[in-house]
Design a protein that fits this description.
The complex is a heterodimer of chains A (about 450) and B (about 375).
Chain A: E1 4-6, E2 20-25, E3 31-34, E4 44-46, E5 53-54, E6 59-63, E7 70-72, E8 77-84, E9 90-97, H1 116-126, E10 133-135, E11 139-140, E12 150-153, H2 164-168, H3 172-183, E13 190-195, H4 202-205, E14 211-216, H5 224-231, E15 240-243, H6 245-257, E16 263-269, E17 277-282, H7 288-291, E18 301-305, E19 312-314, E20 326-331, E21 337-338, H8 394-402, H9 406-412, H10 423-428, H11 435-450
Helix pairs in contact in A: 3-6, 8-9
Chain B: H1 2-15, H2 25-35, E1 36-37, H3 54-83, H4 91-124, H5 131-141, H6 149-161, H7 177-188, H8 190-193, H9 218-223, H10 233-238, H11 250-263, H12 268-287, H13 292-295, H14 298-301, H15 307-314, H16 325-345, H17 352-386
The chains are: A alpha/beta (about 450), B mainly alpha (about 375).
Chain lengths: ~450, ~375
């Protein structure tokens, strides 16, 4: 085993509702959706209208800034709805699925002889190009960049996160094929980052053409941003790409069979799920069938596509996000609590021992979405630094973003970070500052300035 | 609980935009959030949030100050008995004397400070911040017991307005507000803040004071070169000596420090490095000692005057201290180092801690600046190497 990189700063929030390692084939969902909001920084232009018939792999919309990049339907069926939000922003393109899925076929000659251009063209047409993202800015990769390296975080350390080793264990061949394809996209290395706490799945360890790294420590050890920062940090002017195991498997499958088969395994988790398990679904599926009869009834619930720190809020009939490997269901917290700030808080979790739940060690918590306080000015210091393992000063960077000082942001390391890297800072903040949206604002600002 | 909530919900619209008392929105928010943690749920970003908030944090600091406060009240009674030549006295009797003297000071400090805070929050249209909950108790604890109440009010007003609000309010201030109040009185009304008579309750009035009682603080004795008059180490540690209301007992301060460190609210970096800084300076003075004051063992300095109190409760104020982890260590060390230097070398200011902390408050941003610059340079260098 190569050198283990130890992450010391961070925090594991232990929640109730980890998925049991039982894989169920989910009943096919009635509707599927592709959500432009899953993709940072794109401007979607529709290619279909309601009533159109599509196959799995038929483009639904494209990005105005990168017109070659298509966003395709994961299933065949009929476009039944285009949901819009404020200022007619497209939120969801909904497809009602056929009972039997028909696939568009993509022309994939022998993998070995494919050129970089051919690979990119197939990925862009099929709808799998968005699976590859870049830093800086955490946006969909640009085909004309040649990345310094490609990073793959092979495990997820977020609260209740699925066991990625369990998810990929059956897909060794596809994974290898995906890696082979990726290796043609970069002149640099492909870094596969594994968890040092347990022996990784054969799918990972047997793969050829990658460099292995082992990480140990609390969340965010599994965040690709942290891993990049520790292995080969991004400097100004450099671009690295990153992607995740299930997407690599889909890419492998695409070049093997010539179809966009978006099936993936997700974990259904959270304190309000009665039987938290793994499900095999197709990307973009409505969660309606998964949660029906499988969640507690009494309270208003928060459905999250993704984890509790970075996921997006969806409805009980909402759709699994393009990049998400889990659904979390937790209680909403819309209640008043009399003198709540003075109560011992045995049932609440805090990094600070000012909340007395540390008296009962080793337990798991059922947390809700209450903010536990009101927003205040920055007073406390040193809080973010305890959960932020990169060699970057988080508070100073956030303040630079607030004052929109481009030069300062650059010097403080904005190219290396993403919203998700600040999720724990946002969690611990006593002043209840919306850290992640500030970071997103900074990234968008930098992107506008630099392009 | 329900009926109270119903009442609050009923009157709430009147304080919102367009309501009759729209202008009192901040005040309403302050009282509402005091009674109830709001029902606000997360809308963007992390869906769950830590259970700790600003109110709980500030209350923890106030709790950490309680041992010093209670001990201070009892000690006032004790010193008063010493001064008037009385013997005995139960704990409650002594405490009651102190309570009667200190309670009005606390009330004045809170009322003045909170009134100004609320007014500024109202004018600026932002929420009332909880910071003054701590400042309001810190101010009385660093004052002599017989301070006139109008001075307390004046000093508090000065601290809040000039020390805090002119910089933009909570979170923006350069100086520690409580020390600003003390420094204001120290320079504006030195006769009430220095000398031997101010530290013991009833002594400035002069009635019934026995001749043999001087009322001098150990620091004053040391500065005057009367090393033989210094109290025993035990007396200094437990705090049965004259001094500001809450500063005398090192033990009580350490109990507070333990709470702050254990809950993770106070910065261990600052506290420990301040003590180390003081110790280092004390040792240097010992080595080059030319007078009895310089010969006082370095570790005894840490129990004298307000050193421990300042290191634990004042230097660690997160807003006016350095903010980077490395910066905190430098900041704390220099406070301790300078405090003992000022104390021993400049006899006009036996209380060097206050001046050292205020001075380092000014330099804290500069320390952070260099720490952050180092990180930036490292990043630039890395870019050049790879390019």
């Amino acid at each position: 085993m190569s050198k283990v990189i130890k992450i010391k700063k961070g925090l594991d929030i232990k929640l109730v509702g980890t998925a049991e390692k039982i894989l169920q084939k989910a009943e096919q969902a009635e509707t599927y959706a592709v959500k432009p909001t899953d993709f940072q920084g794109i401007r979607p232009k529709l290619l279909v209208k309601t009533g159109d018939r599509v196959k799995a792999g038929t483009p639904l919309f494209f990005d105005k800034f990168q017109p070659e990049v298509q966003f395709t339907s994961p299933v065949s069926g009929k476009v039944i709805e285009i949901n819009r939000g404020e200022r007619r922003m497209i939120l969801e393109v909904v497809v009602k699925a056929d009972p039997e899925i028909e696939f568009e076929s993509f022309d994939v000659p022998d993998t070995k002889s494919l050129t970089r251009e051919e690979i990119i063209a197939v990925l862009q047409q099929s709808g799998l190009w968005p699976a590859i993202r870049q830093r800086p800015y955490s946006i969909i990769a640009r085909a004309d960049d040649i990345p310094k390296a490609i990073f793959i975080s092979a495990f997820d350390s977020a609260p209740l996160a699925p066991d990625m080793d369990y998810i990929v264990k059956e897909y060794g061949d596809e994974f290898q094929q995906g890696i082979d394809i990726l290796s043609k996209l970069t002149d640099g290395k492909i870094h596969l980052n594994l968890n040092a706490d347990y022996p990784p799945a054969d799918t990972y360890t047997k793969v050829k053409g990658v460099e292995f790294h082992y990480f140990k420590g609390p969340h965010p050890a599994g965040n690709v941003g942290v891993q990049i920062n520790k292995i080969d940090p991004i400097n100004k002017g450099e671009v690295v790409w990153y992607t995740y195991p299930q997407e690599i498997i889909m890419i492998g499958r695409l070049f093997n069979k010539g179809i966009y088969d978006a099936s993936k395994i997700i974990a259904l988790t959270g304190s309000e799920v009665i039987h938290p398990k793994y499900y095999k679904i197709i990307s973009g599926a409505s969660i309606a069938n998964l949660v029906k009869g499988n969640v507690t009834e009494d309270e208003p619930l928060r459905y999250i596509s993704g984890n509790v720190l970075t996921g997006s809020k969806i409805y009980s009939k909402g759709y699994v996000g393009y990049y998400d490997n889990m659904i979390t269901v937790i209680p909403e917290g819309d209640y008043y609590e009399m003198f709540g700030w003075a109560k011992p808080g045995f049932n609440k979790f805090s990094v600070s021992r000012a909340v007395l739940s540390w008296l009962i060690p080793g337990r798991k918590f059922k947390l809700d979405t209450n903010l536990h306080g009101a927003q205040r000015a920055y007073v406390m210091t040193g809080e973010y630094e305890k959960v932020f393992p990169m060699d970057i000063y988080p508070v100073q960077l956030i303040k630079a973003i607030m004052i929109e000082d481009i030069d300062l942001m650059e010097k403080l390391g904005i190219y290396e970070v993403d919203e998700e890297d600040f999720a724990l800072c946002e969690y611990v903040c006593t002043s209840k500052t919306e850290v992640q949206s500030i970071v997103r604002k900074g990234l968008d600002l930098m992107r506008q300035e630099m392009s | 609980m329900n009926s109270l909530r119903k009442f609050v919900d009923k009157i709430k619209p009147q304080f919102e935009k367009g309501g009759k008392f729209e202008k009192l929105q901040s005040t309403f928010e302050a009282f509402e959030t005091f009674l109830f943690v709001p029902n606000t749920v997360t809308t963007k970003g992390a869906h769950i949030r830590d259970a700790n908030d600003m109110k709980r944090t500030m209350i923890m600091v106030v709790l950490a100050l309680v041992p010093s406060l209670l001990f201070g009240m009892w000690n006032i009674g004790l010193q008063h008995f010493h001064a008037t030549g009385q013997e005995g006295g139960t704990i409650l009797e002594l405490f009651w004397i102190g309570f009667k003297a200190v309670f009005p000071i606390i009330v004045v400090s809170y009322v003045t400070g909170l009134a100004i805070e609320f007014a500024f929050a109202q004018i600026r249209g932002h929420e009332v911040n909880e910071g003054f909950l701590v400042s309001g108790i810190l101010i009385p604890l660093v004052l002599p017991v017989d301070i006139p109440l109008w001075m307390v009010a004046l000093a508090t007003a000065f601290a809040v307005v000039i020390g805090k609000e002119v910089f933009g309010g909570t979170g923006m201030n350069v100086f520690n507000p409580a020390l600003t109040a003390r420094a204001f009185l120290f320079f504006a009304y030195p006769s009430y803040m220095t000398g031997n008579a101010v530290w013991t309750h009833g002594m400035s009035a002069g009635e019934g004071i026995i001749d043999s009682y001087t009322g001098a603080t150990p620091l004053a004795e040391a500065a005057a070169g009367n090393i033989d008059n210094l109290p025993s180490v035990a007396e200094m540690f437990f705090g049965t000596i004259p001094g500001s209301i809450g500063e005398t007992s090192t033990l009580a301060v350490l109990i507070g420090a333990a709470l702050l460190l254990f809950t993770g609210i106070g910065s261990a970096r600052i506290m420990i490095s301040t003590f180390i800084g003081g110790l280092v300076m004390g040792l240097l003075l010992n080595i080059f000692a030319v007078n009895p004051f310089m010969e006082i063992p370095a570790w005894e300095h840490l129990m004298l005057g307000g050193f421990a109190f300042g290191a634990v409760f004042m230097a660690t104020d997160p807003v006016s201290a350095a903010q980077t982890p490395k910066g905190k260590i430098i900041y704390g060390f220099l406070i301790g180092f300078l405090a003992i230097l000022i104390r021993v070398i400049n006899p006009a200011y036996p209380e060097g801690v206050m001046l050292a902390i205020l001075l380092m408050n000014v330099f804290a941003p500069l320390i952070d600046h260099y720490v952050v610059q180092a990180n930036m340079k490292k990043r630039m260098k890395r870019a050049k190497v790879s390019a």
